[in-house]
Amino acid sequence: MSAYVVFQGDIEDLAGYEEYKILAAESVDAHGGTYLVRGGPWVSFEGEPPPSRNVIIRFPTMEAAQNWYNSESYAQARPLRQAASTGALYVIEG
């Protein structure tokens, strides 16, 4: 069953986040992930609007998503995201 990694956050350092995007994309690809949403405009129908940056990545399985997050390649990218943004990163099986 597919698993979806979701990031919802606000970018505070655009240059740092651009560096992150390059490394993250390489690591996602290397672990069989596919970006479904990578930013872009949105419309809020109900409730509080989401943060300014929303990303959804599909992995073939929950295990693949967890392996990506814990990989050496993503370990190089993760601190760049954490320094450049605030938000939440989580995985949903579905």
Can you characterise this structure?
The protein has a single domain, classed as 2-Layer Sandwich (Alpha-Beta Plaits), CATH 3.30.70. 40% of the residues lie in helices and 32% in strands. The protein has a four-stranded antiparallel sheet. Helix 1 packs antiparallel against helix 3. The radius of gyration is 13 Å and the shape is globular. 18% of the residues are buried. The mean pLDDT is 96.
**Please, how many helices?**
3
Per the CATH scheme, the topology name is: Alpha-Beta Plaits
As residue ranges, the low-confidence spans are none
Q: Percent helix among the residues?
A: 40-55%
CATH class: Alpha Beta
- Summarize the main sheet: 4 strands, antiparallel
Q: Proportion of β residues?
A: 25-35%
The Rg value, from CA coordinates, equals 13 Å
The SSE order reads: EHEEHHE
The tally of domains stands at 1
* CATH architecture assignment name: 2-Layer Sandwich
- How does the helix and strand content classify structurally? alpha+beta
